[in-house]
Amino acid sequence: MTTTVTPPAAARKNTAQEGKFLTFALGKEEYGLEILKVREIIGYMNITAVPRTPPFVKGVINLRGQVIPVIDLRLRFGMEPADITEQTCIIVAEINQNEKTFNAGLIVDRVQEVLDINAEDIEESSHLGSAVQNDFILGIGKIGSSIKILLDIDRVLGGVHLNETASENTPS
Length: 172
Fold this sequence. Notes:
- The protein is mainly beta.
- The chain is built from 4 helices and 11 strands.
- The strands form 2 sheets. It has a 6-stranded mixed sheet.
């Protein structure tokens, strides 16, 4: 029996590998998420608020019988909230926290495309300097004249106990 061990996020910091990334926008900023972390993309839907959660945790949704916590990435990144439009959607991503895997919804302004980014087109986030909190950035993707901030979604949601929010609300 062979087991695969995934290095902890700290060991992977600033080591984005080439591959496919789902790109999306929050305002004028463009981000990328490893496609292997993406489970599906759904239209914006009603979200049930959960008391005593941080403001960026909008609540939970019931997606085909699975209760999924939903995070507003704009609020998580300290951006101003935005109105919901027809382009607003929820990216359902696989999150790893405390050696557990679960799904979480990420509210984004709009999904753009899936890009195949080569290793030579990814700069380490350490090049941003110590003044920038970059522990959640896998790297900076250079695509033509544009820049995509490649996110480590596990670290973006680090410190937020989302799996407990989802499990507390999962029907037995």
